């Protein structure tokens, strides 16, 4: 059993003001809210990192998106309906991280059937793309930044197909109903905060490369001011187009033609040198599907942990690391030994992820072996409580024949480049349905290319491919290929206890998504932090590299004793921006988001809990 908590925070302490950020109790249905009330200039909605109550819960990085999700739940929609509406709202307020020009992975627990299903909304490479697509005439990789800000990086968008699939499989609302409030938000606008301005500034050079992007996101030629209202009427019209005609308009209609024309001939601003054209064609959009896939699943300390299978590496890598950790009694150890074990397990799992995980339609991914307890035990034999092993380390050999402690035989493969952006939303309804959904356009700002008159950015997901094999004599699972889905690190996760919903979470952050989700699970299950504490705790990310990326607070708190064990650190400002929900005893739900990272997140519930509701951190696991 996890060690007992000495302090239990009362719900009444934590819910004060939480619903002001997430939407009031009894919020107006999404299709009846006022249509002509613009947000107040200079007054961005308040954010709350924690909310506890009933009726449903939503956690995102943005209060407008959280509010819209809660309105759907209050109006009778379920978790799938609310997740789609929330994602569409994030396409308005988080346009540099998500939108209909990108893709993502949707993990869903259906309370009626007790099953977890996933939707693969990952972008696909054009049929014209070959393994050498990102190599120059001399056979060398083209500069990464040059590849990003080009049509070459644009894959077939998967987000609209994901929304339709989610609604058809699990939802109760139509696409038109879920898009009504997001379209209104785009038309009315939202108040610019410091994070939005900073992200615009970071991408200013890229945005000025493309005329429609500069026109939209640099109004009047300048950065948007904090406190000003940012409106996107083009996106509002695009949402209404999809609401009226369906996503077929994006995959085979006029909008599809506009996307292809934009990718093939990017609209550079006057005086800007031509960027690389893209290979996307109308046939690529016509053939796109967002298939249902079996989730990854392992048992960890009596809990069932579900995640996203390849082409995402998130589910398998989190699961393998947990399997490596399970034999160790982390709940009875002090913080430093627990964190040492977490870092070592993460490095081992990343070595295997880099070597073996890619699109399963194009390469054999030994998923069953990567998730097996026997393989985890073989990998764990390198672990010592007294010293960190040398990194990068070789991958294991998931061949089904395992020994107590074999010599490393697998390849040593780098992780490749992957953008740090993306966004994650977590939704749970009163019936116990859960949506854990990570969506992205890859880099912050994606390719930088806005479809003229449509109000959304195109992705640069194809730069997630490995540009060139590190060792031509060994198979490389993540090289480009026609129709292939690039490997991802997105790790939307759902945790059940004997089939009943317990916890769901996820994060943005490129390859650090995996370590953010893994560390948060270890914090919640093994270190017995409540979910808000587990998310807020300082982070470190070991991805089979010589140095651990770590936040300053982590280095300050744990750096010295971990260095004594052989870990080396490089400081990064922040890692991830997690959100999560948890089902508590007595029918309560808890929504948690970041208190500070990425400007703070937004958690809300439909009905706030009253005084005396009880503790928020029941023990999880054995």
Give structural notes.
The chain has 622 residues and is of the alpha+beta class. It has a domain at 50-293 and 425-506 and 574-608. It is 32% helix and 15% strand. It is built from 21 helices and 18 strands. Strands 1, 2, 3, 6, 7, 8, 9, 10, 11, 12, 16, 17 and 18 form a 13-stranded antiparallel beta sheet that branches. Strands 13-14-15 form a three-stranded mixed beta sheet. The longest helix is centred in the middle third of the chain and has 22 residues, at 335-356. It is globular, with a radius of gyration of 23 Å. Mean pLDDT is 91; it is low at 1-36.
Keywords:
EC 3.4.19.13, transferase, signal, 21 helices, disordered N terminus, globular, glutathione biosynthesis, 13-stranded antiparallel sheet, glutathione hydrolase activity, alpha+beta, 3-stranded mixed sheet
